[in-house]
Here is the input.
Amino acid sequence: MKQSNAIIIDEYGPFPEVDAVHGVSYDGKHVWFAVGDRLLALAPESNALQRTLNVTANAGTAWDGTHLYQIAEDRIQKLDPGTGEVLSSIPAPGNSNSGMAWAEGSLWVGQYRDRRIHQVDPATGDILRTIESSRFVTGVTWVDGELWHGCWEDDESELMRIDPDTGEPLETLAMPANTGVSGLESNGSDRFFCGGGTSGKIRVVRRPQG
Here is the structure.
């Protein structure tokens, strides 16, 4: 397994009236992040908050190219990004849901203490398959066919790339001490947006190339 230290290239926040960052997603322009009772949209170029959706948002967030998906307690809600209207909802797969991503027409839902990632049918909530990890799972993201997830245990946190078929660890990026990773999303290229848990921050980590 390849191991290296995470390279943090930027940092946003903390933000007013934000106690913790949960899910994180990216729509190509805004970084959306869940803060408990709201979803906020950050413009990373200006470090300015531009949108607020008043919805329950206490875990993972995902973007399918048109709509937002947000874990709200025991449900996953499909949201209109313009208004925050709940268009539909499905059952969340378990009790320790953490991160969430969209890829290949499915939602991928991390379960923290169960050390699992479920592929979920976004229309029905049915679990299509389950990937086991060796670490606690926080945020989840796919990029260029690679499956990455955040890990956070005690005071140690890292980003881990795993084999999407077997869950075998392939690569880790160790975060500095006391720098947790809650939500996780790729920009589709060279960087990861990482929720910083109770720090109230979002950190940008360089994605290894090659």
Q: What stands out?
A: DSSP finds no helices and 21 strands in the chain. The chain has a mean pLDDT of 96.
